[in-house]
Every structure is written in C-alpha cells, then in structure tokens.
Amino acid sequence: MSLISRHKIISGLVGALLIALFGVLMALNWMFEEPGVRKVGSVAQHVEAQSVLAVFAHPDDEQLVTGLLIRAAKDKAIHTAALTATKGEAGTPMPQISRLEDLGQVRKAEALKNTWALGVDYHDVLDFPDSGLKDIPLKTLTDAVRQRMLRHRPDLVVTFWPESGFSDHADHKKMGLAAETVIQELRADPVDGYAGPSHIAYALAPTRMMGRFAGETGKRVVANQPPANVAMPGEAWAKLRGWKIHASQRNYVQHAYGLTAWFVHRLYDKEFYYLIEAKDIPER
Ligand SMILES: [Zn+2]
Prior knowledge:
Rossmann fold, 2 domains, alpha/beta, 8 strands, binds zinc ion, 16% strand
C-alpha cells in the first residue's frame, strides 16, 4: 500500500469517527431539550417578581433551579428565599465524608452554603424526616410553608409539581402540594393584604431523557408532569460549583447518568418550568 493511500484511509476513518462522535453529542444534547418551549432569560424577571420563594424537600433539590435562583438573586431588586423541609439524613453519601449519623447536619450545611453562594437572601432547612414526608400531616407542612410565605411575601413560588415531583420522590410531591395548598389558602383568605404569589413555577424534568433512560420511574414522571412552557439558562457553572459544595453528593450526577457532572451539565444546560398564574393552579 502506498503511503498516500494509507494516509487517505486513515484520514477517512478519522473523519467518519468525528462525524459519528458529533452525531452522538447531538443526540445526547437532544435528550435535554424541549421543543417549542418559550425561552426567557430569567423566570423571576419574566413575571416581574420582587420576591421569590423556593419550596423544596431535600438539601440539593435547589440544584434543580440554580439558574432561576442565581439570576433572581443577581437582581438586587428581587428578594430571594428558600425552604428545605428535611436535612436529607436518609440520603446516600456519594462519597462518604462524615459519620453517617452526622449526614443530616452535613447536608444541611451544604444546602445553606450553596444557596449563600447563589446569592439567596434567606434559607431555612427544617427537620422533617427525610423520605418520611408522606406520613407527616399536610397541615403540619403547610403551617411551616405558610410561615415562610408570610415572612417573605413572594410573588413567585418555585416548587415541585405534586403529581410527578421531578423524580417521582414522595417527599418532592408532598412539598409541591404543601406549597400549592398554602397559595390556595392565601388566595381565599389574604393575611395583612397579602393574597399569596401571583405565579407558581414548577421545576420539570427533561422529558426525553427521563422517558428513555430513567426506567419505569422516568416514564411515570413524564406521564404525570405537565408540558414545560418556559425554559431558561441553567447556569451549568453554578450547578458544578453546587456539586462541589454538596460534597456528600459530589458523585451524584456521575452515579445517576453514568457521565461526569461536567459533561452532563454541558448538555443539560437549561431549566424547564411549567409557569402559571396562581389562580390557574388546578384542584387536586
Ligand atoms: Zn430531593
């Protein structure tokens, strides 16, 4: 074989490989896109919120809405607050960085550090039982949410859709329901002129990825969550910083996706929401 023809074969192979690699990257990226969804720079600014409250279940749930929080917090005119119902003590450390009995305290500190890094003004991490919210009376949870809602008087609440909870986690669904319930109660019966937020944004999972690669749970999430109507930048760099801060969960993305967090967040670079007016919250 002449040197020239060997050179041609090698460059042909390299070219084919690059095209195949590009195809794989495009396909992976497609998994984290939602077609036809309105793109906004900031959900909070889009609804002209002056106060935003995130209502979640576990330390690191706030990682799902990094973009929303950091872009809201960057606007000095917007007050930002978060409520996390549990300390995440029932989670699996990835890797283990403390005594197991201290996991809740460690994760609480990680969540507080992460929202501080995002610029969030206030964050309460409560001590409800991780993975046990389904057994806590709704009224107990709504009392806790209501207290924060009256303190921060948000016009935008971001939480989980009660029927899918982003990952079908029962704690997520319960906190979404608790947030909705308080909003409905305040609409019906305002306190000191505050009738609850004007908008609610539900954090949604990317449906293509969830439906294809997350097994039966993923299919259930896709079947039970509403279609996203808003997308915004996810601020991948801040999510990566967040996984460093959540040191006990640092390997979570690698574990869940089988790919490094750096790579996943290059592809999964948006956040998807179902954003509605509070008056349009459905009856459950
Ligand atoms: Zn969670």
